[in-house]
Amino acid sequence: MESERRPHGKSCLRCGICCLTHPCAMAPEDLMKLARFLGMSTAEAFKRYLILDYVLVSGQKRYYACPARVGDQPGGIVSSDWTFSDSPCIFLSDNSCKIEQAKPRGGKSFSCFLMTGKRNRLGFGKRGAAEAWGRSQLLRELLRLVGACEVS
Q1: Domain total of the chain
Q2: Range 121-152 burial, b when 16+ CB lie within 10 A, else e
Q3: Is there a domain that residue 6 lies in?
């Protein structure tokens, strides 16, 4: 489509830059939607495709789920240097999202400079995701899956 290729337009350019450079934060309901889309339980979707990342808030880790990157071991907690990895999202294929119909909130809300002409922005980033997950029983279940004794 012509409008999808026009810079500073409203449609995605399908260049893949966002999925190469920004981990896509998920809300708890995104995991449930992804699991349904993939036809598996939330635990299985987490173990096969996702990782737990975190932000530090007042010195405490606040966890949230996001897609693993190529080369990650899904179903675990990221190491502190994970944020600086330049590996793409495991759902990126030929500059397109393989889970477009179940794309997480962080991916949907990303505002790319190629589309807007302005600085990249995350409408739903790490802090918002960590806040949403902090209120979720699902986070406690994922932390149990990875054998973590800490609960945010």
Answers
A1: 1
A2: ebebbbebbbebbeebebbeebbeeeebeeeb
A3: no
The answer to whether residue 80 sits within a structural domain is yes
Domain-located, residue 152: no
H or E element that contains 55: strand 50-57
Residue 10 lies in a domain: no
pLDDT tens per residue across span 68-113: 988 888 999 987 666 556 788 899 888 888 898 898 887 777 666 5
Q: Which residues does 92 contact at the CB level (< 8 Å), separation at least 6?
A: 16, 19, 20, 98
- Torsion sign, CA atoms 94, 100, 104, 106: positive
Q: Is the dihedral of CA 137, 142, 147, 152 positive or negative?
A: negative
The domain containing residue 86 runs over which residues?
A: 16-145
